[in-house]
Write a structure and sequence with these properties.
The chain is mainly alpha-helical and 209 residues long. It has 9 helices and no strands.
């Protein structure tokens, strides 16, 4: 009995720990995705390097997600079941199914990213917007999955992830507003070429005398 309890606690700590690390990775993926799109990465970082880091962390997050799901299912303390990994409301435990919803949405983004060349840019971009729905679902799942928010470092992970993603999303929205109609309010000022007076050729001046 004691060994079973110890094993269950070990699975819980592994599942919870991998979930928190996964939230950090997911948040970094979103921030890097916004930085790649808006070109707001540090100047010393080439844009392709930011995009490659975004892609690499996404694949690493998938591997960690598998560990998180498997340890949660194997934990005898909760009843989840394999069907609940794809069906959001199939488990009696935490019936909101936010974690499963996040997995489904993130999975759609990953699959379409791998098949990006066949789908085309427009279809890929339309599905990629689901990442902005997958992250809130994953964040709410991390808040409701455990009762350890009173631990300072757990709360720091939650607050830090939320702050980073919120800043990235606001930067993206602000960039879209500023990049709207350049002739409207708040648009960029006229370029130097547009305001520079036109130089009259010397031949024209001579002919006009």
């Amino acid at each position: 009995m004691s060994a079973a309890v110890t094993g269950s606690q070990g699975l819980w700590f592994l599942s919870r720990g991998s979930g928190l690390v996964l939230l950090v990775l997911f948040s970094l993926v979103v921030v890097l995705g916004v930085a790649t799109r808006t070109g707001s990465a540090p100047a010393r970082w080439p844009r392709f390097a930011v995009a490659e880091l975004h892609r690499t962390l996404s694949l690493f997050a998938v591997a960690l997600l598998v560990l998180h799901v498997v340890t949660a299912i194997l934990d005898p303390f909760v009843t989840i079941g394999w069907a609940a990994t794809l069906l959001p409301f199939a488990s009696p435990y935490r019936t909101l199914g936010l974690g499963t919803l996040a997995v489904d949405l993130a999975g759609a983004v990953l699959v379409t990213s791998l098949a990006r060349r066949r789908l085309g840019q427009r279809a890929w971009r339309a599905v990629h917007w689901l990442a902005y729905l997958a992250w809130p679902a994953a964040f709410l799942h991390s808040l409701t999955a455990g009762n350890d928010l009173g631990i300072w470092w757990v709360a720091l992970v939650e607050v830090g992830s939320a702050a980073a993603v919120a800043a990235a999303v606001l930067a993206r929205l602000f960039g879209r507003v500023r990049g709207g109609d350049p002739r409207g309010p708040g648009g960029p000022p006229p370029t130097r070429a547009a305001t520079k007076p036109r130089r009259v050729p010397a031949t024209s001046k001579a002919g006009g005398r």
